[in-house]
Amino acid sequence: xxxxxxxxxxxxxxxxxxxxxxxxxxxxxxxxxxxxxxxxxxxxxxxxxxxxxxxxxxxxxxxxxxxxxxxxxxxxxxxxxxxxxxxxxxxxxxxxxxxxxxxxxxxxxxxxxxxxxxxxxxxxxxxxxxxxxxxxxxxxxxxxxxxxxxxxxxxxxxxxxxxxxxxxxxxx
Length: 172
Prior knowledge:
This protein is 58% helix and 6% strand. The chain is mostly helical.
């Protein structure tokens, strides 16, 4: 394996700016998924129902067929199941393609790949050490703040406490 395939190079190229449309598994629904599935239907590679392609977004419904509303009071929207299923399959196949490519590189250039892994590991070490030190410091600061807050509460004379219901032990 000497040359990187064009489809892999294309995955790594920057594209146009992103849009604010509904995404399905991080991919734009109206400008990417639906047109792609229409093309695969046209070619006979898929058989997505026309109604799913024409109305990919549906009202979500509860088991009693009533419309589901979110906590914000807005109706919940879902993606039509045939489209959702197709996207799941596409993602699974995409992951398999990435794994296959990685394995091909590992097999064809094992020394170069091992050097890449080692270099990345060594380069990451200072970042990991700094993150660990920063996290330790932040945790200690939070502990100190919690202790100070607890001491302020105790010293303020606020003796009102909430009773804790003890659970009764049940024989096995």
